[in-house]
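sorry for the late reply, my laptop died twice this morning and i had to redo everyting from scratch. anyway the thing you sent over, i finally got around to it. pasting the sequence first so we're on the same page, its 100 residues, then the predicted structure underneath. double check i copied it right bc i was rushing
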Amino acid sequence: MQIDSEQQDDHTVVRVKGRLDTVHAKTFEASLCDTIRDVPGAIVIDMSQVDYIASSGLRSLLIAGKQMKAAQRDLSLSGLQPHVREVFDISGFATIFRIV
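ok and here's the structure:
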């Protein structure tokens, strides 16, 4: 898995590439929590290159979402592949997150 971030105008884009599975979820969570702590403003997670997400990946996103909500900041997800979007729909996470 690869994680990159880029500051754009009033928000930060976090690009994730690979699998958000049990092996990589903790690394993703730590990276995202660091970004939340260190970078002000909204965050958009570009998931266009995520080809698989497990429950551990969903959990990492949920933790990040709660941190952003507590800080009164916006977190959105973008570029979900159809099979990843289906996981969000089935699990109910599509109603928890703003998906653009």
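The chain has one domain: 2-99.
thats about all i looked at so far, will dig more tmrw
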